[in-house]
Design a protein that fits this description.
Blueprint lengths: L2 H11 L20 H11 L3 E5 L2 H11 L5 E4 L9 E2 L12 E7 L2 E3 L5 E4 H4 L4 H4 L2 E7 L3 E2 L2 H8 L7 E4 L4 E2 L7 E2 L6 E7 L5
Parallel strand pairs: 1-12, 2-3, 2-4, 4-7, 5-8, 7-12
Antiparallel strand pairs: 5-6, 6-9, 10-11
Length: 198
């Protein structure tokens, strides 16, 4: 037996007894008015939130605020013109001129305004970070109250890469001057897709 094997055998032999995991149920948040809570928190961190009932409303709102002659990309085929559908096989360096990217989040967290974007929903890993402006569509029923509940949902998933993104990129490290878009999107908008909206 090698030294390595003997050390590992000794460690394995001297394991502490198993103990049950702690009860984390007290971390569960209030499930009432999740969309309103999310909207208030996300707005307070510099983002914009819109409650819509379909992707046509998303398209219309974005075209009111963004130049359709610039490069607009999405992972949502139903979003329609003038958005280009992202290619997962394209060279990531070709996305350096993306003005606006529109992605769909797996879920959103009301307590901190974050959205969860696994790699499969990004189109390419670089997209949410290289675009000038980021818009995210999240279904109202996928908003969870707390980050603990978000982790409970995503913990069993198979992700090569994923990120919680909360608000536009900003920093105030230098002389306490707030700079938007320092190392990512200048603006971030979240569209809460609520089929029950009148």
């Amino acid at each position: 037996m090698s030294t390595r094997e003997s050390i590992l055998a000794a460690v394995l032999k001297n394991q502490p007894p198993a103990s049950p995991l702690p009860d984390l149920s007290f971390f569960k948040g209030n499930r009432q008015d999740l969309a309103s809570t999310y909207q208030a928190v996300f707005t307070s961190i510099g983002g914009s939130v819109f409650v819509v009932d379909n992707l046509a409303a998303v398209n219309a709102r974005l075209l009111e605020n963004f130049d359709s002659t610039k490069r607009l990309v999405t992972t949502l085929p139903d979003l329609g013109e003038p958005f280009d559908l992202l290619s997962k096989t394209a060279d990531p360096r070709t996305f350096n001129d993306v003005e606006l990217a529109v992605l769909e989040a797996q879920l959103a967290v009301a307590e901190n305004g974050a959205v969860w974007l696994p790699e499969q929903r990004m189109g390419q890993r670089i997209i949410p970070y290289i675009c000038q402006h980021l818009a995210v569509v999240v279904r109202a029923e996928t908003i969870v109250p707390t980050l603990h509940e978000a982790y409970a949902q995503i913990g069993v998933g198979d992700y090569g890469f994923g990120a919680f993104i909360g608000g536009p990129s900003k920093t105030a490290d230098i002389e306490q001057a707030l700079v938007m878009g320092a190392h990512g999107p200048i603006t971030m908008s979240v569209f809460i897709l609520d089929r029950n909206t009148d």
